[in-house]
Automatic annotation (TrEMBL):
It comes from Candidatus Schekmanbacteria bacterium RBG_16_38_11. The lineage of its organism: Bacteria, Candidatus Schekmaniibacteriota. GO terms for biological process: methylation. Coiled coil: none annotated. Keywords: Methyltransferase, Transferase. The keyword DNA-binding does not apply. GO terms for molecular function: protein-arginine omega-N symmetric methyltransferase activity. Pfam families: Methyltransf_28. This is SAM-dependent methyltransferase. InterPro entries: NDUFAF7, NDUFAF7_sf, SAM-dependent_MTases_sf. The keyword Methyltransferase applies.
């Protein structure tokens, strides 16, 4: 199977097992070594399939820098050790660069004590990050996984802050649907011509426990996603962080809204060339597959791994709290005319704040350990 396509490899797995969970299908589609959407080599010149908040405007990273500065100061007053900021799913380093620029401008004392680690599974993106972060290079390091970081680190764990932006939404999910009054799991099969969804019994106790924990009672014909990877991820984060903070930015809701009648078909979405669809079985490995984050589960897993919730808010309110309007004012003052540059700046910031766009759907959760 050395020269097989990703689709062939998935079909081969299905033939061996007759059907696979959607989580297994999604895992291969996104993360299969060198072939998955997130792991294949990327041409830096390629236009992305979607834009994240990070790419809209550098003020995104600057506001996170303000939050990190606020969180770090009390910690640093009690200790002389360095403060490590780790971005998980760092991509090509745009957010890391904006955070570091923000720290240097806002809190030089903290900037001088910061070690910044980028964790990114795609090594071609890490290579790009190395170029983008050139001016900050002495304090920046790279790893392809948390395991690699810990292996190369002199410490078993760190004091600092772990940041992720639009990471959890791409974790593989199980999918469930209610048919004939009973919740079943959606599996993926192959009929010789195309991928087909088939219903079967719930694949494991973890899925059942999740359904019970959040009281998921779907209406007939409705479906939803179950993200079990959050549990593994928080456990991994906890193993890295001795003391400090976890800042998670992503789109999603608390469980009561996520599993309500608002989303009768679930929240699974695919992105390719700035177009959205709901068919993950076409263009396998060529498009992103995501689902909304259950922030109740992030809080729950944080609690059982030593984290305490200290803040949960919308992206809009987070930015307003940390001075995004001050940035707009400073940028606009002194402009003699409403230039194209000024319009572009204001338009980008508006997209970060709109109640019916990124501003409300995106949430920021901050958890503290130690």
């Amino acid at each position: 199977m050395k020269n097989s396509s990703l689709k062939d490899l998935i079909i081969e797995k299905i033939k061996k097992e007759k059907a696979v969970t959607f989580a297994d299908f999604m895992e291969m589609a996104l993360y299969y070594p060198e072939l998955g959407y997130y792991t294949k080599k990327r041409d830096p010149a390629t236009i992305p399939d979607y834009y994240t908040s990070v790419e809209l405007h550098p003020v995104f990273g600057e506001t996170i820098a303000a939050q990190i500065s606020h969180l770090a100061n009390p910690v640093l007053q009690k200790s002389k050790e360095s403060f490590t900021v780790i971005e998980m799913g760092a991509g090509k380093g745009i957010l890391a660069c904006d955070i570091l620029n923000g720290l240097r401008k806002r809190n030089k004392g903290l900037y001088d004590r910061v070690d910044f680690v980028l964790i990114e599974a795609n090594r071609s993106l890490l290579a790009e990050a190395g170029k983008i972060l050139g001016e900050h290079k002495p304090k920046v390091s790279f790893a392809s996984s948390a395991e690699e970081f810990l292996k190369e680190s002199e410490e078993d764990s760190v004091t600092g802050c772990i940041v992720s932006n639009e990471l959890i939404d791409s974790f593989p999910v199980h999918r469930i649907r209610k048919e004939k009054g009973k919740i079943k799991e959606i599996y993926v099969s192959w009929d010789g011509a195309e991928f087909k969804e088939v219903l079967g019994e719930i694949s494991g106790e973890e899925v059942k426990e999740y359904i019970n924990r959040y009281g998921i009672e779907l209406k007939e014909g409705c479906q939803a996603e179950v993200n079990l990877k959050i549990s593994d991820w928080v456990r991994e984060v906890s193993s890295i962080l001795k003391r400090g903070f976890l800042i998670t930015i992503d789109y999603g809701y608390l469980a009561d809204k996520l599993y309500s009648e608002i989303f009768p078909d679930g929240t699974l979405r695919c992105y390719r060339k700035h177009k959205i669809d709901t068919n993950p079985y076409e263009g396998v490995g060529m498009k992103d597959i995501t689902s909304h984050v259950n922030f109740s589960d992030l809080e729950y897993n944080g609690c059982i791994n030593g984290f305490k919730l200290i803040d949960f808010t919308t992206q809009r309110d987070f930015f307003l709290r940390w001075g995004i309007l001050d940035y707009v004012t400073k940028f606009a003052v002194g402009k003699e005319a409403f230039t194209t540059e000024l319009f572009s700046e204001l338009e980008a910031i508006k997209n970060l704040l709109l109640p019916d766009g990124m501003g409300e759907v995106f949430k920021v959760m901050i958890q503290r350990k130690g």
